[in-house]
Design goal:
By secondary structure, the protein is an alpha+beta fold. The protein contains two helices and nine strands. The longest helix has 28 residues. It binds zinc ion. The site of zinc ion has 8 residues, from loops.
């Protein structure tokens, strides 16, 4: 009886893996490297779900009016009016431009977080949380290296 229960669990485990694996493969396939000049660090974040060290981004103190674009494909992602200082060490925004991102649930590090990807090229940008201080209640925690700021 114990053996068959274990066997059953093994089957469940393997079939879950079999379902998850192709989804991951599909997601990876939809990512397109467009900018050939991306640095190794940028590629690591955008295509391998890496994270830059906090308080390292030049964009943390960027307060000019303008728009933030995807460093890989140039897609317009955030308006400067949505930027705020979250104190986390990563550029933070209360909302993205409509249709800028696609989201997926990230279960890594034993947490359930909402990860977002550029809708145009599929590159990973960061995670979005529901503890934002502005009206939207959202906090987009974005790796600065994935963004290019274009002042107005
Ligand atoms: Zn992009």
């Amino acid at each position: 009886m114990k053996f068959s229960k274990r066997k059953f669990l093994q089957i469940i485990c393997f079939s879950t893996l079999a379902i998850i694996f192709p989804i991951k493969t599909i997601l990876a396939a939809t990512k397109k490297l467009i900018n050939p000049n991306l640095s190794k660090q940028q590629k690591n974040i955008m295509f391998k779900e890496g994270t830059e060290r906090p308080f390292t981004s030049d964009l943390l103190n960027e307060k000019r009016k303008g728009f933030y674009h995807c460093a890989n494909c140039g897609n317009k992602l955030f308006a400067s009016t949505a930027k705020f200082d979250s104190g986390t060490g990563w550029p933070s925004f209360s909302e993205s431009l409509p249709g800028a991102f696609k989201t997926k649930i990230d279960y890594s590090f034993g947490m359930e977080r909402v990860e977002y990807h550029c809708a145009k090229c599929g590159a990973h940008h960061g995670h979005v949380f529901n503890d934002g201080p502005k009206e939207s209640g959202k906090r987009f925690c974005n790796n600065g290296l994935c963004l290019i700021f274009k002042p107005e």
